[in-house]
Amino acid sequence: MKYVIGLGKTGISVVRYFLEHQIPFIAWDDTPALQEKVQLMGGTIVAPNQAPWHAVEELVLSPGIPTTFPTPHPAVQRAQQYHIPYIGDVEYWYQHVQYSGYRYVGVTGTNGKSTTHAIIDYILTVLNIPHFSGGNSGIPVLEAPKLPSGAVINLEMSSYQLDILDKMTFDVGVILNITPDHLDRHGNMENYILSKQTQITCVKPGGLKVVGIDCPGGTQAYDNLITAGHTDIIPISAVHTLENGMYTVGHQVISSTHGSKTVLGLIPDTLPGAHNAQNVMAALLVCRHLGIDVADFFKLLPSYPGLAHRQERILDTPKALFINDSKATNADATLPALKTYTNIYWIVGGIAKDAGIVPLLPYLDNVEKIFLIGESTTRFQAELNDATLSVFTADTLDLAINLIAKELDQVDHKITVLLSPACASQDQFQNFEHRGHVFKHLVQQQFGSN
To answer: In this predicted structure, what is the pLDDT of residue 100?
Structure first.
C-alpha cells in the first residue's frame, strides 16, 4: 500500500493516478478542504498517527513536505522508524511508470528555471519533436501521456523535488543560479547548494551538464562539482568572458573552447537583461544537445511569446510601459527587472522573505518612485529610510494603481510601471498568479483606453 502525503496539485495527481490504476493507497494532508476533495474522489484519508505502518510499502511526498528542516514531517519520521522509503512524484514516475527510450532534461535554479524550461518547450513544440514539459510548474509528471521512444521529458525541478530523488538519471542537467531562498527548509545556504547540485550529479555519463556562474551560489556549486570530478560541465555567464564555456557580449551569444571563440547567434530584444541571456544560453545548449540546429534555434527564438508574470509586458501607452513581474517573490528575482528598465514606478511588497529588500537598495538608480503594498509595508518603509526616493504607502494593489494614475498626470516623460513584489503573495492573494492577474485587470481597466 502507498501513502500519499500532501494533497496540493502534485499530491492530487498522484491520487488520481493511483485511483485510475487501482493501486491501493491512503492519503493525508493537514488541510480539511483537501482531505474532503480526496474523499470525494474515492480516496481514504488517514492521519500519520493512525496509519497502518506495517502495511505501508512506500511514501509518495509532495514537494512541500519537509524531510529534514525545520523538522521532518510526522509521516517521514514514522517512515524512517519503519525503514519505509519515501520519494516524490517524479521519482515514482521514473521507477514505476516511464517508458523506454526517453531523454530526460532537468532544469533548476532559484530563478529563471521556468523561463528556460518554457523556451525549451517552445522550440520542441514548433519543431514537432515529441516531448512532455512539466514538473515543478505546469503539468505534474504523472499526467504525462505515453510518448514514442526518443521523446524528450523536459522537467523543471525544484530543490524540494531534487531532495527526494533516488535512482533517477538525466541526459541533461542545468543549474541556472543559486541565491538564498527556502533556507527554512534546507537549514542553511550550504545545504541548499548541495540540493541544487543533485541536478548535475544525477546526469548519466556522456550527458550534458550546464551551470550558471554569475552568482556566488552558482560559482560555489560549479567549484564543488568540478572538485568532485564533474569536469565536463559547461559554465555559462552573461557577465564574464570565459576561456571555456558560453557567454554573452551585448546581444551576441559566444561559445569559447580553449580561447577559440564562435558567435552562435543573437538574443532578441524580447528577452532583455542578463538573466534572460543566461536563460537563452542554457536553453540553446539543451536544444543543441538534443540534436536541434543552432541556426534553427535562433531563427525561432524571436517568436517565443514569454511567460505570464515574468517581466510580462501587459500594456504600452505613450506615457507608460506596464510590466507584470509578479513571479518575483524574492529580492534576487526582482533584481533583473530593476536592472532592465528605466524611469521605474516600482510596486513592491507582500510577505517578505528573510532578506527583505535590503539586497536591492544598491540597485535603485533606475527607480523614480516606490509604491508599497501588503503586510511588509512597515518593514520596507524602515529599510528604505535612507533612500532618496519618493515612497508611497498604498497598502493594496488597486490603491497603488490609483496613486500611479494621479502621478502620471504630472510626468513629462515615459515611465515603466513595474509590479515586481520581491515578496510572497499570500497576504492578499491566493498565489503570485492571482496577484499578476489582478494587476493586469487593474491596469487594463485604468489605462487600457488611454
So the answer is: 77
